[in-house]
Input
Amino acid sequence: MDEPERHNVRPASDWLQDTIDAFYAPADSTPIPTMLWEKTRSKVAFRKGEISVWAGVNGHGKSMFLSQVTLDLCHQQERVMVASFEMKPVQQMKRMSRQAYAGREPTVQFLQSLHSWTDGRLWIYDHVGAVEWRKLIAVMRYAIKTHGITQFVIDSLMKCVKGETDFDAQKDFVNELCAFAQAHNVHIHLVHHVRKGESEHHVPGKFDIKGAGAITDQVDNVFIVWRNKKAEQDKKGDPTCFLACEKQRNGEYEGKFGFWFDIESQQYLESVNAAPVRYDLSANSASRK
Ligand SMILES: Nc1ncnc2c1ncn2[C@@H]1O[C@H](COP(=O)(O)OP(=O)(O)OP(=O)(O)O)[C@@H](O)[C@H]1O
Output
């Protein structure tokens, strides 16, 4: 056996302080990043060393939802790198600007403030189209070293692995991402698709996620974003989007949250009567206001 391996066999008591901290977070520790809706805040967290899969049907709002989550992470002073291979950077920033402004037409002054606020918080990997996943991992390693990235958003898995049925390659990529998240103590958000169900009104679950079942087995958290087109048509006040937390390895909550998508601001609202909220770019609190 190699010498370093021997040192990895340690008494359990070596982790005493870590275990105490896991129960009673030290006063000077930074809170675990989360999403800033009241209803989700204490239930779901994006822990370092973990990977979250965000799955859903095409066009059901995975990227849109994650755009608001990215703003929330920036608001909590996380250093986020978005690698969206499906959308040009300007399109991403346009969406995010509407969400941050809480309206359809942000003023030039607001756009300037937002884009200086994102300095030190948000980076975009400027690459649209397919990418070789080993190259992406190299870029991520560089981004950690140079910019201290703490959260990555990869949109989507299918742009990183050739062939929808190459389950082994998908498994290898996700396996490598899991190891990467742990080795560098960062959180990775990975967008993925679900198989076509019998209709758009069928709410997908984790067993509908495309590709190898090993993907959901390997990752720590699984979220499904589902657009409720029936509620959009009926206009009876039911949620127009559901976020289902289908798996959370190190958290106790699993269940569904309802949201109302506001077309003007492109924000997801927590209740039918809620108004979109402009992000306060001068605050670093754990609230958007
Ligand atoms: N709940 C909703 N109600 C109304 N419109 C929505 C809702 N969710 C998303 N949209 C609209 O649908 C469009 C598609 O959203 P988005 O690109 O985020 O989907 P996606 O799931 O990432 O799609 P793809 O898998 O094709 O990348 C957006 O332009 C958005 O305005």
Residues 56, 58-64, 86, 227, 232, 240-241, 261, 266 surround adenosine-5'-triphosphate (CB under 6 Å). The two ends are 55 Å apart (CA to CA). The domain at 37-269 is CATH 3.40.50.300 (Rossmann fold). The chain has one domain: 37-269.
